[in-house]
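[Automated response] Your request has been received and processed.

Submitted sequence:
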Amino acid sequence: MKIEEWKAIPGIETFEVSSKGRVRRSLNAPKAINTFPGRELIPDDSSPYLRVSLRSGGKLYRECVHRLVARAFLGSAPKFAHVNHKDGNKRNNAVENLEWCSPQENVKHAWKSGLCQPVVGEHHGLSKLTDRDIEVILSAKLRGVSQREIAKVFNVSETNISSICLGKTRVKNAKS
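Generated structure:
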């Protein structure tokens, strides 16, 4: 197991971040009202990413912990860089789990690792039919109702009905 290392946060030197993703007031920081050097901050966990509020030089910084760790341990960010969590866990801010990447690489990683799932069925923004409508369409087709008649009832094209009957249109609860 690696020993936890602390480094000053570039641009906010009155605070330090650890290689394990913890943030504290710097041991060398001047004592201020209600803050003590070395005191660990409790991150806000109300969003998927852990955030901390840092006050330094009269300015308030609200920062994501993973970005602070990356800046301190991985160096300055390339232009427009994102921080990727290699294991997909947005709360694992250990330096070994972080890397700078392009926005495209970050999205590709999210899809490849299963963090992003396609929106299908009635939850898709362009969907005209509900999952129940699909069941009714398939049932009607099995009873011999023509695709043209089904299309008229549901106000969609015959091509849509054909895609549903052939299994080309994905339904949320369908087995893949």
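Summary generated for your ticket: The chain has two domains: 6-112, 121-165. The chain has a mean pLDDT of 87.
If you did not submit this request, please reply to this message.
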